[in-house]
Design goal:
With about 450 residues, this protein is α/β, with parallel strands linked by helices. It folds into three domains: about 220 residues, FAD/NAD(P)-binding domain (3-Layer(bba) Sandwich), CATH 3.50.50.60; about 120 residues, FAD/NAD(P)-binding domain; about 110 residues, Enolase-like, domain 1, CATH 3.30.390.30. It has twelve helices and 21 strands. The strands form five sheets. Strands 1, 2, 3, 4, 5, 6 and 16 form a seven-stranded mixed sheet that branches. The protein has a five-stranded antiparallel sheet with strand order 17-18-21-20-19, sandwiched between helices. A four-stranded parallel sheet has the order 10-9-8-14. Strand 8, helix 5 and strand 9 form a beta-alpha-beta unit. The structure holds flavin-adenine dinucleotide and nicotinamide-adenine-dinucleotide. The site of nicotinamide-adenine-dinucleotide (NAD) has 26 residues, from helix 5 and strand 17. This is Pyruvate/2-oxoglutarate dehydrogenase complex, dihydrolipoamide dehydrogenase (E3) component.
Length: about 450
């Protein structure tokens, strides 16, 4: 049996950089991947979606050109979906090949293609594509197997063709009528993308408002901006039954005591993701999972079995690329640089890439209230931001939650043009413990969106 210093299961956003770091340290490292090097982010997640969203944004800008006094000879926009998919594939391939090269360039990394399962506490068996099984062992094992689409139990769903966030990336024709189950990150990013490419999109969300984790005022702006583009949004609506054949689908939704039927040609399931832990045969170890299959870890990402660690989406908590990446840094520093870093205190920024974006950091207003903090809310409409007025991008607002006693920023939500970038400026301010008063008086270059951070905190004076 081949022996390694470390085994990494899954070529995700934490696993790849960790493999490189371990190898650079001279540790013999095996990385096992059952599908595609680069994991979800590169192959099915961030990279392909944001590449396609860029095309949809261009289509929308052309459609709205008259707003800037630009007129087109033709009256409609025609969309070349095969071109958009091919462009996306080129970017994905470029990113994936870059990752493969970076792993192959390290002599101490061995890449194994196949599905990994534990056959002992230190042993991992790999079922390779030709069905041959090999077993390897190591003292340290890192699980980075990510997550996959949840398919909810809705009567009739298993009998009809449906799309997931992965399969929709390669469809050949634009769905005329796309029903999307789920009004969160995937449903809204994908929904707006396909609406802009020419579909009519209906979002079905059981929660009282879109993006249940966000404040209701933020969700209301998102709903309004998507409806303005022609999308239909059903909140407080639970799918009850679905039927149909290729290109004629009929979905019954229940809202309180009322019931209605939505029809469409295609269905996208975007109701969340489940951890990929079942194939790992964790019963051969002392690693425990919660009732949903998430691998249980402590604040230092140690599982309940010494020597086995988990990072990224397979453990509970926020499921983002930058979190998985940060997990690998924490593990490396704790294991090899005598640090005692914890995931408890780290910042969790995120950005939903609708257009405009929603940038988020720290506490929402609702969370601050639930925690009982004394706080003030600074809020500035994007229609008061000079840069937004100049560029014609006035949808949304900036909001920051400020501790009433310390003047420190507890959280922020920016729903508006460059929302993610503006949020990152506030994130840096939070990391540096800057106060709202300091930000109100800081010199920013004019006329940046960030300059309006001055005005955002001036609203606290009123
Ligand atoms: C449509 C979509 C859009 C997204 N957009 C964003 C975004 O804009 N920003 C953002 O921060 N996040 C985004 N995410 C989330 C992001 O992709 C994940 O949080 C990120 O990829 C972290 O994943 P990971 O490192 O846990 O593992 P993953 O990247 O999921 O990789 C896990 C790897 O493990 C492999 N694997 C699983 N089981 C086994 C096994 N038994 N043996 C061998 N290999 C195995 C899988 O094939 C996979 O390659 C998006 C996700 C989706 C689906
Ligand atoms: N920009 C980003 O950072 C980004 C983009 C896409 C995905 N992601 C990551 O991917 C993960 C998965 O995203 P997601 O949007 O699929 O999941 P999610 O868990 O964020 O939301 C799932 C949504 O589906 C709804 N839902 C649940 N059951 C349903 C049903 N039967 N019918 C209709 N709706 C139902 C929920 O109420 C919820 O609003 C997220 O946790 C996120 O971290 C991030």
């Amino acid at each position: 049996m081949e022996k390694f210093d470390a085994i990494i299961i899954g070529s995700g956003q934490g696993g790849n950089p960790l493999a490189r770091k371990l190898a650079k340290k001279g540790l013999r490292t095996a990385i096992i991947e059952k599908r595609l090097i680069g994991g979800t982010c590169i192959n099915d997640g961030c990279t392909p979606t944001k590449s396609m969203i860029a095309c949809a944004k261009a289509a929308q800008t052309v459609r709205e050109a008259a707003q800037w006094g630009i007129y087109l000879d033709q009256h409609s926009v025609s969309i070349d979906l095969p071109f958009i998919v091919e462009r996306k594939n080129k970017i994905v391939t470029q990113f994936r090949n870059g990752t493969i090269r970076s792993l192959e360039n390290e002599p101490d990394i061995s890449i194994f293609y196949g599905t990994a399962a534990f056959s002992g506490i230190r042993q991992v068996s790999i079922t390779q594509p030709d069905d041959k099984v090999i077993t390897i062992e190591a003292t340290n094992i890192f699980i980075n197997t990510g997550a996959a689409t949840i398919i909810p139990e809705i009567p009739g769903l298993s009998e009809i063709p449906y799309l997931t966030s992965t399969s929709i990336l390669d469809i050949k024709q634009i769905p005329p009528e796309l029903i999307v189950l789920g009004g969160s990150y995937i449903g809204l990013e994908m929904g707006q993308l396909f609406q802009r490419l020419g579909s009519h999109v209906s979002i079905i969300e059981p929660g009282p408002h879109l993006m249940s984790r966000e404040d209701a005022d933020v969700a209301a702006v998102v709903k309004n901006m998507l409806e303005t583009e022609g999308m239909t949004i059903h909140t407080s609506s639970k799918p009850d039954k679905i039927s149909g054949t290729d290109n004629t689908l009929s979905l019954d939704i229940v809202s309180g005591t009322s019931r209605k039927t939505i029809t469409g040609t295609h269905l996208l399931v975007a109701t969340g993701r489940r951890p990929q832990s079942a194939e790992l045969q964790l019963s051969n170890t002392n690693v425990t999972t919660d009732e949903k299959g998430f691998i249980q870890v402590n604040d230092q990402l140690e599982t309940t079995c010494p020597g086995i660690y988990a990072m990224g989406d397979v453990k509970p908590g926020p499921a983002f690329t930058h979190i998985s990446y940060n997990d690998h840094l924490l593990l490396y520093k704790n294991l090899f640089e005598n640090k005692q870093l914890s995931i408890k205190s780290r910042q969790v920024p995120y950005c939903m890439f609708t257009d405009p974006q929603l940038g988020r950091i720290g506490l929402s207003e609702k969370e601050a209230a639930d925690k009982g903090y004394p706080f003030k809310v600074a809020c500035l409409g994007m229609d008061k931001v000079a840069r937004a007025i100049e560029t014609g991008q006035t949808t949304g607002f900036m909001k920051a939650i400020v501790h009433a006693a310390t003047d420190k920023i507890l959280g922020a939500a920016i729903i508006g043009e460059q929302g993610g970038e503006i949020m990152s400026v506030l994130q840096m301010a939070m990391a540096g413990d800057l106060t709202a008063t300091q930000l109100k008086e800081m010199v920013f270059a004019h006329p940046l969106y960030a300059e309006s951070i001055n005005n955002l905190f001036m609203t606290l004076e009123k």
